[in-house]
């Protein structure tokens, strides 16, 4: 069943590390860097509780991968496999009309209507849903006068911002935007890697061995962007990542990604992808906060 595909990199990592579930899992270091780098790049006019949560964002960013712990999947696959569709989107062959669907269920309906694979992934919709969740929470925060209630809302905002970070981080890795998620499949005229550890070698082994937060932070853009169209910005971000797919495989062909890789171009590419994820995450957070202050559209009659 296709959703299991996104459990493969985690399985490989746990096997390689000989560690229990929920330790090292981008793998956990990459996700942590994206969350913390985004938190450290917030503008001064964001509320202080949020600006002070960078370490929390680093911890929370890998959380949706922790939910797919193998012991829990063995008890019931509803969470571990059922939610794995939210971590990726396969751009190959999915019509634009499907991405224009108002919500995830209409998206799946449109895929069925054109005989496309319903397991093409839900990543764009998961990102949109969480940005909207944050915007609602910021609206509540703005109008709440009770200190205890405000504290509870702030906890929800930090948590959901951190969870959003996971999916935005996934969207920075070209493997999460393609059918070629773990080795090239089908016609392969360029002779790209086909081994079933490709995803792990790039996302986990290489990052853990070569990249630190200090590499990523300087590349996060200084000035945040407030998006007029969150859906359009999300799709543009994911399509840009998809456009980096062959660059990833070209680099891997030149010198395989793993903990021993020495190529300078490899590190530049990986750090750039992590920084792109942190920049997009920071911008989505700022967008949710700023636009929560806009007038709420009137309820349709």
**Broad shape:** globular
Percentage of residues in DSSP E strands: under 5%
Please, what is the oligomeric state?
single chain
Main sheet? Answer: none
Tell me about this structure.
With 301 residues, the chain is an all-alpha fold. It has a single domain, classed as Orthogonal Bundle (P1 Nuclease), CATH 1.10.575. The protein has helices at residues 8-17, 28-40, 48-51, 54-60, 63-66, 70-75, 77-80, 96-99, 104-113, 123-143, 147-170, 198-210, 213-216, 230-242, 245-254, 264-291. α4 (54-60) crosses α11. It is globular and about 60 Å long. The model is unreliable at 1-25 (pLDDT under 50).
List keywords for this structure.
58% helix, 16 helices, mainly alpha, P1 Nuclease, disordered N terminus, 0% strand, single chain, 301 residues
List the helices and strands and how they pair.
Blueprint: H1 8-17, H2 28-40, H3 48-51, H4 54-60, H5 63-66, H6 70-75, H7 77-80, H8 96-99, H9 104-113, H10 123-143, H11 147-170, H12 198-210, H13 213-216, H14 230-242, H15 245-254, H16 264-291
Helix pairs in contact: 1-12, 2-4, 2-11, 2-16, 4-11, 10-11, 10-14, 10-16, 11-16
Compact description:
The protein is mainly α and 301 residues long. The protein has 16 helices and no strands.
